[in-house]
Automatic annotation (TrEMBL):
Name of this protein: Uncharacterized protein
Biological source species: Sporocytophaga myxococcoides
Spans through the membrane: 33-50
Domain of life: Bacteria
Swiss-Prot/TrEMBL keywords: Membrane, Transmembrane, Transmembrane helix
Length: 67
C-alpha cells in the first residue's frame, strides 16, 4: 500500500510541475509581447517628438529672417 501512495504522490507532483511550467510559459509570452509593444510605442513616440522638434526649429529660424 505504501508503494502505491508514493507513486501517486510522485505523479501528482509531476502534474503540478507541468501546470506550473505552462503558466510560466504563458507569463513569459505575455511579458515578451508587452516588451515588444512598449519598444514600438517608444520608437514611434520618439520619431514623432523629433519630427515636431525639427519642424519647430525650422519654423523659428524662418520667423527670425528680416526683410
Amino acid at each position: 500500500m505504501e508503494t502505491i501512495e508514493i507513486v501517486e504522490n510522485k505523479s501528482s507532483k509531476k502534474m503540478n510541475n507541468e501546470s506550473t511550467t505552462n503558466e510560466q510559459v504563458a507569463v513569459k509570452n505575455k511579458n515578451k509581447t508587452f516588451a515588444i509593444i512598449l519598444v514600438v510605442l517608444v520608437a514611434l513616440g520618439g520619431y514623432y517628438g523629433v519630427s515636431k522638434y525639427i519642424h519647430g526649429e525650422q519654423k523659428r529660424t524662418l520667423s527670425d529672417i528680416q526683410i
